[in-house]
Amino acid sequence: MEKEKVISVSGLTKKFGDFTAVNGITFDVYKGEIFGFLGANGAGKTTAMRMLCGLLSPTSGDATVAGFDLYKQTEKIKTKIGYMSQKFSLYEDLTVKENITFYGGIYGLGNRELKFQSKRLIESLGLQSEANQLVGSLPLGWKQKLAFSVAVIHKPSIVFLDEPTGGVDPITRRQFWDLIYEAVKNDITVFVTTHYMDEAEYCNRISMMVDGDIAALDSPSNLKQGHGVDSMDEVFYNLARTAKRKSD
Questions:
Q1: Which residues contact 162 (CB under 8 A, 6 or more apart)?
Q2: Which domains does the chain have, with CATH numbers?
């Protein structure tokens, strides 16, 4: 049976003046997978994600997200996705409960559903004692877990995670990925950007970005095998070196 495409991208490009941030990328993402968008800072990962979320207009190319056209149906796309930015996902001057209520309202939850989901979320994260504390007082790891939980509170088809584990320790990073796996079990497709190459091992497939281009796209095991190496760091090093030779 053919896999269902939830994201389909063809020749997507974003230019800022003379600078090309994303250079004609083409790929598909299938329902129920964890799709990793990897690359160094400045590779074009966040720009590509912001276009797919309807937050940034493409310069050219085509794409559909959750079955909707990126140019004509951005508002419909926004009802089917969740989004978590590394820096701006929560309001630190609101309490835990107020953040949940605020974002639940943005995502269109009714009062009864919002009350139920808020209670469930707080209990599942073990934040009963912190529910009325300002988010700014929480450790970074807890903020990120809360931000992710809020991003999927409305059970979206796809959740976009932009560098979600930046700045936290390895144990907290692993706990965060447990939340991602749980979301996948609930039929949420995960699109995640990261510059941590070890996190590629957690993805079903990965796209490796180098200077705005997709330099490789496959499963982690196939990429390592194809390059004859044991780690994703080595794969990325090989791809970056090849790209540099081409530019020179």
A1: 45, 46, 49, 83, 84, 85, 86, 193
A2: 5-247 (3.40.50.300)
